[in-house]
From TrEMBL:
Protein name: YgjP-like metallopeptidase domain-containing protein
Organism: Pseudophaeobacter arcticus
InterPro entries: UTP_pyrophosphatase-like, YgjP-like_metallopeptidase
All residue ranges annotated as the YgjP-like metallopeptidase domain in the record: 6-104
Gene3D superfamilies in the record: Metalloproteases ('zincins'), catalytic domain
Protein origin, superkingdom: Bacteria
One Pfam family from the record: YgjP-like
Length: 104
């Protein structure tokens, strides 16, 4: 019975997390000038990072990010969305972060 409850809770958290993060990505995509449309994204269990951006532009988010404060969620999403423009951690990338998440 415990496994069933854990599975249902995990599934509920995944659906809820996907919905919440989808809304934040949509909202940020509207205000970030280099983002034409919300990119595809998926949630994964990640051991060492909060997110990543694939070379094809897919955003991968740690499914536990949804538990963080909104300010942290937005920073991670802005960071990953910035990789759509600069797929590195160059000075241009950090300038973009500073301009749109200045309090990071």
């Amino acid at each position: 019975m415990e496994d069933v409850i854990e599975g249902r809770l995990r599934a509920w958290n995944l659906v809820r997390g996907r919905d919440c993060l989808s809304r934040r990505i949509d909202a940020l995509a509207k205000i970030l000038p280099w983002v034409d449309a919300p990119p595809p994204f998926r949630l994964l269990e990640m051991a060492r990072q909060w997110g990543s951006c694939s070379p094809s532009g897919e955003i991968i988010i740690n499914r536990h990010l949804v538990k963080a404060p909104r300010q942290c969620v937005d920073y991670v999403l802005i960071d990953e969305l910035a990789h759509l423009k600069h797929h590195d951690h160059s000075p241009a990338f950090w300038n973009l972060i500073d301009a749109h998440a200045g309090d990071w």
